[in-house]
Amino acid sequence: MSESVLYPYQRRYLNDTSRFKSGMWSRQTGKTFTTTLEAVLDCLDAETQGKSRRWTILSVSQARALDAMDNGVKLHLRAFKAGFEALAVPFAANELAFEVRLPKGSRIRCVAANPDTARGMTENLILDEFAHHKDNRAIWKALFPVISRPDLKLRVISTPGGVGDKFHEIMTDPESVFSRHIVTIYDAVADGLPRDVEELRRGMSDPEAWAQEFECQFVDAASAWLPYELVGSCEDEAAGIPAKYSGGHCFVGMDFAARGDLTVIAVLEMVGDVLWLRELVEMRRTSFAEQLSALDRIMKEYRVSRAALDQTGLGEMPVEEAKRRHGQYRVEGVLFSAVRKLDMATALKERMEDRSLRIPPRPELRSDLHSVKREASPTGAPRLIAERTTESGRSHADRFWALALAVSAAVEPSPVYAYETVSRRTWRGSEDNERW
């Protein structure tokens, strides 16, 4: 592979052979491309010497692990016209490791990161998007002894997350042993990366997200109602898949759209004492008829004990219609007063803190949940505000409120039905029967 296809910031990173190396790079600058290239080059170099090297890439999810393999490792090996065997092998419980094996025994594998998979390895490691790994401190504690051998290398690369997580510590600790590489979007463009910075900034239309994702600034999570680390602790790849619904009682939250916002329906299934997000329906610029039709499907396909619907403003009419269709005891209209919003947001946060909520690891959902901020009102009471987020498709925290509504529906007591058998004679003679 010719160095002409690499930008100077990528070459600087690759030429740094430090044992411990970290990179905090802007979005769209080739983080995974570059780190997988380093692993491939190391393996090919060993193969030419009749030796072997082993690398494991720990990704934020199995989907990201597959992407790193297909659009990183395999891409580079094919560019070098290197022979390899590609495999998907069982790895830990319900997980796959995506591997390539070279003729002399070198191996690169990509797996989803968690503390259990990090244990027991003895090889070079790459932590891809480490700031966004679920419980990255626990992963760090499990993996660091793995690379105790002086010939093994550790690479940690990510866009920044919140202040206070392990990646923040690696990048800011003055006593850190890491050789650190920081590449903002401005650095990358100055080195020749073809990007229109102003167009990207205008398109994002979110100063905080821009600072974090493109300027590599750590965002202080103190004002965020749900810090990234808390959100990540509740993520599970088994969530968000309707086919995994097990037939249990469900709770629904629905946030109706205003103007260009999303209409979102969140479906939570209670499994033991844990609420699993089974389905997240998102609709933009749809009529109330279409939105109610989507709710009808949800009420039919799931055993919905209770549904909480946003009745504020435009929600008045569709909520009344939903009550007519599905019953006033199953459907509750919620007016978004400051007090009620705080109650719902608190219930959602407590569920997350108790680890009794499971959500899928989706960037747009993560960004939406993090977008709600806490600030003091003139009276000193906490007040929640939501900023629009580009990751979430210009959502105004619609996913946050749909999920909060669903959690609040699970908090409220579900209607209890009792049946009593009566004789035909008694039934026929009842006053209630005559009214029907």
Could you characterize the architecture of this molecule?
This protein is α/β, with parallel strands linked by helices. It is 38% helix and 22% strand. The strands form 3 sheets. The chain has an 8-stranded mixed β-sheet, with helices on both faces. Strands 13-12-9-10-11-14 form a 6-stranded mixed β-sheet. The chain is elongated, with a radius of gyration of 26 Å.
Layout: helices, strands, pairs:
Layout: H1 8-15, E1 20-25, H2 31-48, E2 54-59, H3 62-79, E3 85-90, E4 96-101, E5 107-112, H4 115-118, E6 124-128, H5 136-143, E7 154-158, H6 166-172, E8 179-183, H7 185-190, H8 197-204, H9 207-213, H10 228-233, E9 249-255, E10 262-271, E11 274-284, H11 288-301, E12 303-310, H12 316-326, E13 331-334, H13 338-353, E14 357-358, H14 363-370, E15 372-376, E16 382-386, H15 398-411, H16 424-429, H17 431-435
Parallel strand pairs: 1-7, 1-8, 2-5, 2-6, 6-7, 9-12, 11-14, 12-13
Antiparallel strand pairs: 3-4, 4-5, 9-10, 10-11, 15-16
Helix pairs in contact: 2-3, 11-12, 13-15
